[in-house]
Write the structure tokens for this entry.
Amino acid sequence: MSNKKITRRLAEKTKELWNEHEKGVVIFLGFFLVAAISFQLGILQGEQWQQEPLVIEKVPEATAVSYAGVLGGSAKNNAKDNPTAENSSEVLSESEEGSVECVFVGSKNSDKYHNKACRWATQIKEENRVCFKSEEDAKSKGYLPAGCCMK
């Protein structure tokens, strides 16, 4: 076969292939272009909306007070008496000491006790909170281990 015949035959096959798959190719290219443009717009918008990172330099007193309540309550009273930046470190250090005394937490309204780090323990109101030094202490007072955090 000569080069002209091969070229002509190739052109005919290409036209046939295009006629069969024209819709699919156009739809694919359309989706691809829309996706590429959307991606690029997202990157441009992201660059405009970038913010400085949030830096927390000091633990808020309210947070220190709530942790102190979970750990025994003695640090909370000190925080109310003298709310200064210096006292914030006292609250944290006393709460660390209190963690030895209050390892498990229960509620007056329930017969279950939780590990002090359990999220359910942190939701117990301070006036209903009961602290235990050990599991034996909790069990001796009639409390049962909570299934969520005491497995």
